[in-house]
Amino acid sequence: MTSDPMKAFFELHRDLPREGPGEAADVAWAAGIAGLPASAEIADVACGPGGDIASLLEAAPEGHVTALDKTAHFVEAARDVWQSDSRVTVLKADMARIMNSYDMIWCAGAVYFLGVTEALTAWRKSLRPGGVVAFTEPCWFTDDRSERAQKMWADYPPMTDANGIAARVEAAGFETLATRKLSDAAWEGYFAPIDKRIAVLRPGADAALTAVLDEAEEEAAAWRAHRDECGYLLSVVRLK
């Protein structure tokens, strides 16, 4: 299939419904906390293939969603679904440089690429008065952390607990309105399609693809075994 590790990664992740844990209930909850109007302008930052666009439109049926991602085939996948809906614009763009202004900036599972404080600092100019940022961030839920769970998140040394995330929010001049731990259903909505994709790709996979499949399989198994120790925290924050 492929001997390139990056190509192997995207071979696994091609045509998945979403690129991280999440569910419609997360968007509805965040919109409720924000008091989002039906006509809201929303930015879906690092949107992946657009897994949250439908839920964002449900939260603001008279509004508009600008979805952006810098990965071309994710942008293409989202456009294939939403190009005929005038309420959605899908852009190939860098999440560090958001243009225009929004009532809510939504970012599922990607803030860690910039850092919480850094992302919020970059995005504050794009928030309308009273606007919010809703984002998910890897989070420790206990101080008693197994070796396997720590290995799962070894590539993200800044990972902290809910208090640590709140401190990074405050450092950017924001306040945390509310937080929500992502549910098991949100995680399985991400992992279950990957499980099926792994099964399809295993036969005939070369070394590079096999390594990517093994890593993805272990990530899912580690989370399922240690879900009480770690996961994602959804925060809704607003400028002070």
Describe this structure in words.
The chain is of the alpha/beta class. Helices cover 41% and strands 23% of the residues. The chain has one domain (20-147, 156-184, 228-239): Vaccinia Virus protein VP39 (Rossmann fold, 3-Layer(aba) Sandwich), CATH 3.40.50.150. The protein is built from nine helices and eight strands. Strands 1, 2, 3, 4, 5, 6, 7 and 8 form an eight-stranded mixed β-sheet that branches. α1 (5-13) packs across α9, α2 (24-34) packs parallel to α3 (53-59) and α8 (184-201) packs antiparallel against α9 (207-225). The mean pLDDT is 96. Residues 42-131 form the Methyltransferase domain. GO terms for molecular function: methyltransferase activity. Pfam families: Methyltransf_25. InterPro entries: Methyltransf_25, SAM-dependent_MTases_sf.
CATH superfamily: Vaccinia Virus protein VP39
CATH C-level class is Alpha Beta
Give the helix proportion (percent range).
Answer: 40-55%
The percent range for strand residues is 15-25%
| Number of distinct beta strands | 8
- Write the CATH fold name: Rossmann fold
The second-level CATH architecture is: 3-Layer(aba) Sandwich
Mind summarizing the main beta sheet? 8 strands, mixed
Number of domains: 1
Q: Radius of gyration, Cα only, in angstroms?
A: 18 Å
Work out the helix count: 9
- Shape descriptor reads globular
Distance between the termini: 51 Å
Q: Spell the H/E element sequence.
A: HHEHEHEEHEHEHEHHE
How confident overall, as mean pLDDT?
96
SSE class: alpha/beta
Can you tell me the residue ranges where pLDDT is under 50 for at least 5 consecutive residues? none
